[in-house]
Amino acid sequence: MRITHPHLAMTMALFCCLFTATAFGQGIRLMRYDEDYSNLKDSGRNLYNTLKFLPLSASKKVYFTFGGEIREEIGGRINEDWIKAQGFNYSFLQRYSFYTDLNIGKSIRFFAQVNSALENGSKYGPSPVDEDQLAIQNLFGEFRLIRDSLNKLAIRIGRQEINYGSGRLISVREGTTVRQYFTGAKLMYARPRFTLDAFVLEADEVNFGVFDNRPSHQANLWGAYSNLNIQKGGNFDFYYLGIRRDDAEFEEGIAKELRHTFATRYWKSGGGFIYNLEAAYQFGKFGNGVINAWTMAIELGYTFEKSRFKPTLNLRNDYISGDRKAGDGTLQTFNPLYPKGGYFGFNPLIGPSNLIDLHPYFTLNPTDRITVQADVVFNWRYSLNDGIYRPGGNFNTGGSLSPHRFIGTTYLLSADYKYNDHLSFSVGGQYFKIGDFIKDIVPVWDNSKFFNAQVSYKF
């Protein structure tokens, strides 16, 4: 049985009309629980301010915040698996979410969010990242143990989304209709120029129905992530991540995986010269064998802030290890853990394992509300004895039978229009020109094409 949302859609459409003119001051965050509306306690009581700050006590120290999102997307694919005459396939994707945030003084907080993701149209049916008809996305209690001008210490217990760094290894996966979440505990410490999170979390098996996701009942992800900001010296991230998967699949085989990742990142964002340098090393056990994998990434860019349209020139380059020989007892394939799916394109066909890529891209801002971006991504296999993997890191197809390294070239063009902090539109197109490796593994091959259009409203 499928779920439709006519009443919810009409309600959200009404919210769009009501809030577009009245919303002010509060930026919408990627992680909705990061938003703070306590400064609205003395503001006028229009509809928007009431939803964002609804006091439950005379002192206004106990209050509710409500918010949500409606997102509609249409996407089309031609020969999406590089198979000639595979033909056209489309999907109509919908995301509806609603959250409530209860703050009790300065020390206690409860946050809850439900999410509905729907897919219609695909001749192959929905994928796990396209549809989850109704799920509890966040449900946690947060207890603030220390909260002064210099130190903040809090513990968060329950179901929660997480997102760290560039999203290469740990991401909420905003680009897909179904966002990623975990259940467990996280300890958070922050000073003005330093943060440290430590966590132990389990992952759910995501199913398509209503409240039918199944917990693993084991720790799937644990670790610590820190950020150090040096004034005029950039940002340093240092982190350790551990994962466990019982039936992990690589060209090496299928077995239990226990993997540890130590990594560092040095980065600067904003105007002028930007950079992002990241390196990670992995070790552990895969079945009866050992893991020895790594990645190195560099991104350099420059924004011409005083030029018309504020153009930026950027270059990314990734080296991501692959397995040298299947069955030899040592797995060198890098595992991207829980990455964002769109790191190599907004409809990527290959993922960040056994990969070398070179990725120049260029952006323009014709107005303050419009951004246009053009990308080219050249893709090679790192190891000729390992295959290619999907954006989430899952094994796609073996590669030991092909002597060719070059996978193909991705061409992308996209445009985003931000009407305000709440309403945005985007369109994009992608063309993947296959290389000799794809010609070897796909008997009757062809280049693939993709396009999409999306509208999103958040309140």
Helix share bin: under 10%
Radius of gyration: 23 Å
Give the overall shape, derived from the CA principal axes: globular
Could you spell the SSE succession in H and E letters? HHEEEEEEEEEEEEEEEEEEEEEEEHE
Tell me which CATH architecture applies here: Beta Barrel
* Overall tally of domains: 1
Count of DSSP-assigned helices: 3
Give the terminus-to-terminus CA distance: 30 Å
CATH top-level class: Mainly Beta
Helix-and-strand structural type:
mainly beta
What low-confidence regions span 5 or more consecutive residues with pLDDT below 50? 1-25
Count of β-strands: 24
Residue share in β-strands: over 45%
Under CATH, the topology can be stated as Porin
Biggest beta sheet attributes: 18 strands, antiparallel, barrel
Average pLDDT metric: 92
Account of the 3D structure:
This protein is mostly beta strands. The chain has a single domain (6-458), classed as Porin, CATH 2.40.160. Helix content is 6%, strand content 53%. The chain contains three helices and 24 strands. The protein has an 18-stranded antiparallel barrel. The chain has a two-stranded antiparallel sheet with strand order 9-10. Strand 7 and strand 8 form a beta hairpin. It is globular and about 75 Å long. The two termini are 30 Å apart.
Provide a quick synopsis of the model.
By secondary structure, this protein is mostly beta strands. It is 6% helix and 53% strand.
